[in-house]
Specification:
Elements: H1 2-34, E1 40-41, E2 61-69, E3 71-75, E4 79-86, E5 93-108, E6 114-120, E7 123-126, E8 137-141, H2 151-157, E9 169-177, E10 188-193, E11 199-200, H3 201-209, E12 213-216, E13 220-221, E14 223-226, H4 231-241, E15 244-248, E16 253-257, H5 266-272, E17 292-299, E18 305-312
Parallel strand pairs: 1-5, 12-16
Antiparallel strand pairs: 2-10, 2-14, 3-5, 4-5, 5-9, 6-7, 6-10, 8-9, 11-13, 15-16, 17-18
Length: 313
Amino acid sequence: MATLLLTGLGTMLGGPLGGAVGAIIGQTFDQAVLFRPKGRQGPRLGDLSVQTSSYGSPIPKLFGTMRVAGTVIWATDLIEDRHKSGGGKGRPSVTSYSYSASFAVLLSARPIRRVGRIWADGKLLRGAAGDFKTETGYRLHLGGEDQPVDPLIAAAEGMAMTPAQRGGAYAVFEGFQLGAYGNRIPSLTFEVEADAGPVGVGAIVSALTGGAVRGEVPTAFGGFAASGDSVRAVIDSIADAVPLSLRDDGAVLTLAGEAPVAVIGTEERRAAAGGADDEQDSRAAAGSLPAEVTVSYYEPARDYQAGLQRARR
């Protein structure tokens, strides 16, 4: 349209030469404005809300070193960033969208020493040297009784509405880029070092009971996550792996590991009893015994992935 108008106007003012100049100017205007290709829109989310954790999710107390999945306790809605590119020389412009979020992940209901590697959807997010593979801000609160509130959460929720989570260790991610994870908060697992080395069973039980149960057991765990309906349920789970006995001395319960039972043959028993045969042997049918025993465990050498060992008779 501008081509016809400016061609006629140029011809009236400058003759054929003016008409040619007007046509060139009109074509340039038409291509840049009137007939410019419509810009293209990249994929865009319609819902920017984030689903966080629900009430009642158990938060374990960690001992030793473990790989654990944290619980998201706070998150912002997704933050949308718009980027426009192209649009020159008759080409359509392209508007693309990227998304980020800030969130906090509770790791342990007991103070920790540090966090090593972090995995997102099973892929390494943070290496042993502390380098992140995805752009994000990161802060770790170790769970001390004097730890302050996180400044990002306080700015979003207000200082009066922001708990310091004292006694609980948590990590805060700020501006975490979500493009590599389907524009959602990925499933995160953390290598958490709660103690400098293996922790004795007695120390674990004493910490869980507030000193009501004490004692020394010659067994230590490289990593243990205490969670369950009660402290008794946790001690029962420990007793499944380590034989335990309790003695009430009137003040506290004293914890002790049971001594191993020596299994000796008939001739050895007779010799120990001075030749007397006052014991009887009994045999059970082979079908009453399990044909296979399976033990599952976490293997630190394989990034704490679950391992499985079987023994068959």
